[in-house]
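Work Package 3 (structural annotation) set out to generate three-dimensional models for the target panel prioritized at the project kickoff. During this period the team completed the workflow that converts sequence records into discrete structure tokens, so that structures can be stored uniformly alongside our sequence database. As a representative example, we reproduce one entry of 167 residues exactly as it appears in the project archive.
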Amino acid sequence: MGAAARALDSRFHTVHPGAYDGQFYWGIAIDPLATGTLHRAFDKPSYRYGHPLYGWLGWLFGAGRARAAPAALVATGLVSLFAAAAAAVLLGLDRGRSGWEGLFVALNPGLISAAMNDLAEPLAAALLLGALVALVRGRQTAASPSLWSCGRSFGAVEGSLPESQRR
């Protein structure tokens, strides 16, 4: 993926050759519908494009520009981490607590590391906690799309099914 990235942007710098999922989210942000050639560099294109939400948000916030995709993905991860923390605050306040619960999310080492490596966990946490806020407030209709998106962005739905029942 590094060679493909440098072909699109000669200033692109890879941090390490390891295969973090962030590189595939970057690829989805560049080629959101797999109509170009970049998806051919993916290890498992059908699997990677089965969980496109984070990459699509990178494409959307990068205005479809390849050079803007890395910054858009970083911003998406950081905004997602903030949104997850804000939802945790709301959950705490709704339950009569002080609201400090948001710090447990904002300072979670796993979520911070995921945001630093362009992984989808902060987005999944924001969607899940947002859905919980909606459920606690009696808004089941609002919670449903968020829960579905959480499963699609994080792979929770397919990962929990036996191999024979996966699409």
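The longest helix spans residues 69-94.
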